[in-house]
Fold histidine kinase.
Amino acid sequence: MRGEGQSAGTISTGTGRFAFAAVDRSTSAGNPDWSIRPRWYAVAFHDLPKTGGGRTDLAGFLAAALAVLALASLAIAYHWQRRVEADAKAWELAERLEVDNRALAAVNRELEAFSYSVSHDLRTPLRSIDGFSLALAEDHSDALDPEGRRYLERIRSAAQRMGQLIDDLLGLARVTRSELRLQSVDVSDLANSVISALEPDHAVAWQVQPGLVAEADARLLRIVLENLLGNAAKFTARTKDARVTVGSRWDQDGPVYFVRDNGAGFDMEHAGRLFGAFQRLHAGEDYAGTGVGLATVQRIVNRHGGRIWAEAAPGQGASFFFTLGKTGK
Ligand SMILES: Nc1ncnc2c1ncn2[C@@H]1O[C@H](COP(=O)(O)OP(=O)(O)O)[C@@H](O)[C@H]1O
Ligand SMILES: [Mg+2]
């Protein structure tokens, strides 16, 4: 307002002129801060000389303003009411979700503990089966005919396979149970170290992009690379000029690490099953395995707040991509 801070003056509007004068100056005496001191003014309104209907205009204007104000307050009240209701509903839903989540987590923990102890307990009788069939094969094979020896051989290989399954299951459970210890990891170094321990039966041209780094749990990331690189080696066993590449590319959320091979690949139609425990897209006779590896990898990646996915085609190789969530940035 133009008259602010003055003791008297005029303010012109479209319909007329307001004249004002301070009535009592003592309220502001000694205080220069006008904005916080109330001051009384006498105000008079004069029509503009040319506009005869100024007062009527003002009344109309005030009525319209009042109507707009009333409508606006109604709209605000309605909106407010709706918001309060929506807030209450959202709050109730969030609370219910939290309760469900806690119950689910408890059931999950119980299941993990159960499968861990069952797997652990299964190991002892299995060791007996494997040990005694080995003793039978070594010390009493003369007492068996060729068919008997073949059966014994099958018992031993089944026992060993079951042992591998149990170990993999225990590994899967351990991944969820162990504490996440984040540190700066040289992914290229880790990949090279995993590769040197792999020793596949066929020649593989390994290529690891240097300088890959991540903020991750080194022990768990090693398990990820062991599985992805182990798979890449396994599924290139029948490929001429087998090639496996480890690298990273950037998307808007940070680095995406990948392991790419030119091996057997698979039909993307079945890609949804890849990360389920015991799920295999290839026959055991062609490529041995338990189908627990990628389930373990996915759990580790998820624990880091990341995600994993694959692209492949039959006979054209496979690429596995993963992020490590915010820790990878
Ligand atoms: N690099 C790959 N190329 C082709 N298929 C793959 C590859 N990696 C995984 N798969 C498919 O996903 C399945 C699950 O993998 P995984 O859980 O590691 O089990 P496993 O290695 O014991 O078979 C594999 O059996 C295979 O069918
Ligand atoms: Mg595997």
Notes: The pocket of magnesium ion (ligand 2) is lined by residues 227, 230-231, 289, 293 (CB under 6 Å). The first strand starts at residue 8 and ends at 12.
